[in-house]
Amino acid sequence: MKLQCDVEVIHRMLPTYGLKNRGRGTRAVLSIGKHLDRTTQRNNIYLMICTQKDRTGSKYKLKENIEQFFTWFVDEGKATVRLKEPAVDVCLSKADANSLKNFLSAARLAHRGSDSDALPLSTLTPVRARDVERPKKKLSILSKKDYPLTSNFPYSLEQLQVSYCKLSRVDMRMLSLKGLRCLDLSNNHIKKLPETIGDLGCLAELVLHNNHLETFSAALCLSSLQRTLKLLDLSRNRLHALPDQFCQLRELVSLKLDNNLLEQMPTRIGQLSKLRFLSASHNKLPFLPADFRQLSLENLDLFGNPFAQPNSLDHTMRLTFPLSLQEMASRAVLDLRIPFGPHLIPAHLCKELELAKTCDCGRTVVDAFIQMVFLDICLQRGVR
Fold it and tell me: Domain PIF1/LRR1 pleckstrin homology spans what residues (predicted)?
């Protein structure tokens, strides 16, 4: 059994001699396995720690030799194993949490004296140099000839850039990188995004500049990206519209929509309360939704849009008198902030509530309203 992580071996007796431990971990491979004890001529179970400088490894006997386990932060990939002889603390960090738990369970069994023949352990051997290298966090591929065809991307990647590779779709191997925080697929030929991008639970930046995208899926807007995505670059694509659910991406801080074919912005764009940087230049926007006034922008670029001349008489009327019971109930649910979900009401009603609009007077409306178009709303804030 092996575990890759950062390891610091602290000698507890050093302070008594006026010496200090180094105080910094190093990348290592820990192995629990069988090793022939020359004194007893029997296979005993040992813990072996191999580093880049010492690939043959240091071995520590485990049977009845563990004084204590410290596992308060095991879910964060951290733990400490205190040995009796020699008097050292083996401090582990930056480990995969599940692998660490399995490794500690095996160490407990070895400490309790479980029969070495009964445990599925191999004989300890030195590790290869590549096994003790630090995991790769960043990778940039800027040409098609450098793109990997037969090998996987390093599982530890947090930032991945794949540009100028003429990709027509998102490689499914990228979607297995669960620690990915930044994905840059700019300057390719991607036409459609798979919904499984929403399964990247740590993704904070998604750059899709200069591709062939025609749609942005509503399913992506309702995925885990709602909680993680802060930067989205969809500039230089072929988008005609964004789904109403787009406004569920409420962690967005920066949004780039330049050089598309957008004819309108999402009706409830004001829900993007954290949005500070918005650029949508060179589109086909004739007007902005009234909800636009709710944004707190630091930088706004709408240059090159064919905005129509102001005419406050232009309106869309969707009113029925008296208001339907469904409309009144929907408004009450939203005004009183009553929790709702598909486990309480039909799914189509949930969708209508999520896409509700806000009147200029501040009241919530769902399906009965008069929509007026004013083009001076962007002049009410100090933005350009």
Answer: 1-122
